[in-house]
Write a structure and sequence with these properties.
Helix content is 39%, strand content 29%. The chain is of the alpha+beta class and 95 residues long. Helix 1 (19-33) runs antiparallel to helix 2 (50-66).
Length: 95
């Protein structure tokens, strides 16, 4: 399976002082998944097989709710091409 990039922004409906702790739980789950990822100021970008990354997106919703969110708005971006795409090819010249 080709590698793809999926960016995920979760916006849990919790009191403002709880937003970062909830998002931290999602990032912790992404870290434990073993996929390559990079946290940005507005979203986290992951690299891997599409099915695995979409499962992570689904788990992120459940985590937000289990941490007290009554609702979760998520923004998902997928960069897919048949031969695969990596984060390095897109940003290495900026590092």
């Amino acid at each position: 399976m080709p590698r793809v990039n999926v960016s995920l922004q979760v916006i849990p409906n919790v009191p403002e002082d709880k937003i970062y702790p909830v998002v931290d739980k999602v990032i912790e789950m992404i870290d434990k998944s073993g996929v390559k990822y990079e946290v940005g100021p507005m979203e986290t970008t992951m690299e891997g097989e599409l099915d695995i990354l979409l499962e992570i997106v689904k788990k992120a919703q459940t985590i937000c709710v289990s941490e007290g969110a009554s609702r979760v708005i998520s923004v998902v971006k997928i960069d897919y091409k048949e031969e695969g795409v990596t984060m390095d090819e897109k940003i290495s010249k900026y590092r």
